[in-house]
Batch of 2 targets.
Target 1
Amino acid sequence: MKNRLFTVESIIRNINYNKDKRLNKYGKGPFCKFKIPDNINRAAVYIIKVNGKVKYVGECEDLSHRFNSGYGQISPRNCFIGGQPTNCKINSNILKEIKKGAKVQLYFYETEERFLLEKELINKYKPEWNGTSGKVVRKSKRVKKNKYNT
């Protein structure tokens, strides 16, 4: 299956389930394997759109790593409680949309203010794949001017 951004290499239906651990909400799959170019090693806010609609907003320190080692290749440990359910959710949702023939697009904006921008975009678009409203943003304390520090 091909999409403008994602090339789905394989569908992974079965994760070797550990009988002693419970799957997280998104751990059952199915999952796919995909990647984006390896040279987008920038801190950024990114948006995943499906057929022009914002479905997910996130932030990262390294966009290529986030997609190629996180969303694009599901590690079995992330399927269990205590893993990273967001990776499973995003991967599975991308697979579902591509199988339906949807146009999946990835946009990113390089910024060091990624936590603040992520929160603003989530609040603006309210994407259905986001489970939270973004990271907690702490504003820096401003020093009040006085006769000693003006």
Target 2
Amino acid sequence: MTRIFLLLLVALILAPSAFAQNRRDDYSFYEFYVGYAHERANNNADRFDKNGRATFNGRTVDFVSEKVNYNGFNAEFNQNVTRHIGIVTSFTGTYNTTGYFDARSGRTFNARVQRYDSMAGPLTSSPRKLTTTVSMPNSIKT
């Protein structure tokens, strides 16, 4: 008797979720997502030291490129114009405090590194929940 009562109680509690999207034309006009971002990328040391031509206190430096872990966030906003066509906008920011190693002097220069990426473009989706996004990316590095 207890099992039947618990089963009926669970079915009663979960019943509203079964009817949450019961119509075929039911879709969300706006969608919003915020999450954690992790990126393992090159520290761009070769660009930063201008291929060994940059100077620091009158001495040339040659920084060593290496893969570095970055932590950050990701935010995305979708506006669905129709059931199958929408507009997506995404913004990502990643951060790290890392050291740039100078191969000539053996010193390490600490730096706070930030990277921001933005994306916007059309979004198409099919009835089978397959989505395609065509975007125009933009990156800002400081």
